[in-house]
Structure formats: structure tokens, C-alpha cells
Amino acid sequence: MERPTGPWDPGLQVERTTLAWLRTTLAFVAGMLVLLRLIGHESTIAAAACGVLTLPLGITISWLVWRRHLRNERRLHAETPLPGGALPAAVAALSVLAGCSGLIYVLFA
Amino acid sequence: MATDPEDCDSRWPRRLYRDGSEPDPRFTLANERTFLAWIRTALALMAGGVGIEALNAVTDRPSPFRTALAILLLLAGVLSSATAFTRWMVTERALRRGRPLPAPRLAPVLGYGLGAVGVAACVLLFVTGL
User: Fold this and answer.
1) Which end of chain A is more exposed for a tag (fewer CB within 10 A), N or C?
2) Residue A69 domain-assigned?
3) How far is B53 from chain A (nearest CA, A)?
């Protein structure tokens, strides 16, 4: 792929955004692992159930982020519009859910 | 080039993409990164809340102050992540219409609020050994 001659490099913009996505996914997975460890003190079954439900999400999000990265690069070079807001909305909803499970842990554990 | 499975006209939320014209992609990507920074802030707040509550589990003197602090941090986390997407959308709409960006209303509240929580936690730490 040819490097651009313009004042900004599309590759770097997309790379930075993808890294921000990966940092966020990592924070999400690390947070869930800590929460699972704490739930494990109360009930192993509950922790296992939550783990089975949440940990594949980390892999799924990473895969979707990688797909978004490739799509961003392709569209920037083709000068077509960037992808929409479905993935951000899903991640925001997940984050709200994570906060609510934290609240449930604090209030009932 | 492979055909793109997500057609440009089918982007979600549709109402947003019917407005205005395509902005500079740099601004769209910067908006996305700001959104992600808000989500990370929310996750950090939640981690702090759960961490403080976990202290109750390992000490023999559970404190209601700790639980109150944990709930406060978790609520701040939920609020931040719940408003992050709306803010992303409002900013993207402003970019598409070429209007000024919305004022960050939650940022000062969170800043001063966390400052106050920090001071209160310090006082509690020294007075009651929280």
C-alpha cells in the first residue's frame, strides 16, 4: 500500500483508533476477570456461569474491532464514508451492564 | 477489492446519517476515540467501586462508608457509560452539520465530584481508619 503524500496519514488515524478500542476491550476483560474472582468467593457456580457468558464477549469484540480496522483502512483509502455507530452502541450497553452487575455484587454479596 | 458487507447507506443509527454531510474522517475517528476514553473512564470508576467493596470482604470490620463510596463510584461509572454513546451521537451530528461541538457537561461534574469524594475518603481514612 502506498504511503500518502498529504498532511495526515490515514493509516495512523485508524491505528490509533484501533488501539483505543483494544485498550477498552482489555479494560473490560480485566474488570470482568476481577469481578468473576470476587463472585467466586460467594458461589463457584455463579462465577462459572458469568464467565461462560462474558469471556467469549472479549474475543467477539476483539474480532469485531479488527474487522472495523480493516474496513476503516479500506474506506479511508477508497474515500468512502466510515463505518457507523452499532459497535460503539453495543460496547456502551455492555459497559452499563457491567456497572449494573457491579452494583448487584456490592448490594447483595 | 472485496465487496463491503456493510453498505454505506445502511449505517446505524440511520437518523444520524441522514443528517448533514460526511465530515472529515479524522474528526469522526477522534470522536470515536473520545467515546472510548469515556468508556474506559467508566470501567475504571466501576473497578474502583468493586475494589473498595472487596476490602469489606477481606477485613473483619465491614464499613458502611466503604459500601456507600463503592455505590457512588459504580453509579458514576454507569452514568458515564450511559451518556457516552449519546454524547458520541450528538458530537457526530454536530460534525455532520458543521455546527459547534456540544459542551462537556458531565466532565466538570465528574471532576469536581471525584475531587470531593477523594477529600471525603481521605478525611474518613484519617478519622475512622476507613
Assistant:
1) N
2) yes
3) 6
Closest residue to B22, CB basis, from A38, A81, A99: A81
Domain count, chain A: 1
Cell, residue B68:
456507600
Q: Percent of chain B at pLDDT above 70?
A: 92
The model's confidence at residue B56, banded by pLDDT at 50, 70 and 90, is: confident
Cα B95 to the chain's mean position, in Å?
20
Residue scoring higher pLDDT (B75 or B5): B75
Q: How far apart are CA B33 and CA B36, in angstroms?
A: 5
Domain that holds residue A41: 29-75+86-108
Domain assignment present for A1:
no
Question: Quick one: which H or E segment has residue A2?
Answer: none
C-alpha cell at A66: 479488527
Kindly give the parts of chain A with pLDDT less than 70: 1-7
Contact B85 A82 (CB under 8 A): no
Q: For A28, which residue in chain B has the nearest alpha carbon?
A: B43
Asked if residue A91 is part of any domain, the answer here is: yes
Q: Is residue A71 part of a domain?
A: yes
Pick from A21, A23, A85: which is nearest to B12 by CB? A85
